[in-house]
Amino acid sequence: MKHINISLYASEGPLCKTGKKWDLRGSRGGAGGFGGRVMRKVGIAVLAALCLSACSTPNRNALDNNDPYEAANRSVFELNQTIDSLTLRPTTERYNNYVPEGVRDGIHNALENLALPVTFANDLMQAEPKRAGQTLGRFMMNSSFGIAGLFDVASRAGIPEHKEDFSQTLAVWGVGEGPYLMLPFLGPSSPRDMVGMGADFALDPTLYIRIKQHIWWIAGREYVTILDRRARNLETLDDIERDSLDFYATSRSLYRQYRAKEIRNGSPRPENPN
User: Fold this and answer.
1) Is 238 exposed, middle or buried (0-12, 13-18, 19+ CB in 10 A)?
2) Is 221 exposed, middle or buried (0-12, 13-18, 19+ CB in 10 A)?
């Protein structure tokens, strides 16, 4: 449903750290370079979003849905929908039409395999040794016999798949999600999920592999991840939008249900004794 808008929970973090000496002051340390211009634009966008949120007066329904910034969130949701319809959706349709299913499955498997070290770290932080062992087994088997993860031989061998992230780890240890947020380009989120996104990005071991043009590896992987998730949910999202009286409210509800189920590791919601 991740991240269900443009990215379907796709992005794990901002682009940073390259093989070159880029920093926040600009290109190769220059005060007025590309990095500086990007940071100024990001700062302006964040400031504008904060102003919108501050000026929004939440109604009773928004507060009941833990969505105090609903007016601003709906504006961002509409922006995301517009960007999706103009850019990602046409690309996704061509990807599904022209790339053979077997190739798409291989790309998906490889991306899932690359994410397993982060899942493994969060399994350990959640004190789940059995699930950590399953994750490690899947990674070793798929990375070797599955040819760098292109083939999911671990599932055929009976090792179940699961996903964990740092937001789930925070939830396991009692950290609340905070208010519902709709992020530009990234879709549904919450303060807890935003913190988790940054932590998972830092936990990814591929971030620390020093290769030339490292930033393009990060950007390319993130883009293909977004494309893969959008492509695999294209028809599902179309059906949801077509059947929804309020697509924003439906997306918000489905996102929360999906995240709650992930935190419970797929277990049924406990019954309220009251």
Assistant:
1) exposed
2) middle
Cβ neighbourhood burial of 66 (10 Å; 0-12, 13-18, 19+): middle
Per-residue pLDDT at 229 exceeds 50: yes
The amino acid that residue 221 corresponds to is R
What are the residue boundaries of the structural domains of the chain, listed by start? 27-263
Is residue 38 a contact partner of residue 222, using CB atoms and an 8 Å limit? Answer: no
pLDDT of 35-51, one tens digit each? 445 445 444 544 554 45
For the whole prediction, is pTM greater than 0.90?
Answer: no
φ, ψ dihedrals at 191, nearest 5°: -55, -40
Sequence-ordered strand ranges (E) for the chain: 181-183, 187-189
Q: Which long-range contacts (CB under 8 A, 24 or more apart) does 134-138 make?
A: 134/159, 134/160, 134/162, 135/162, 135/164, 138/113
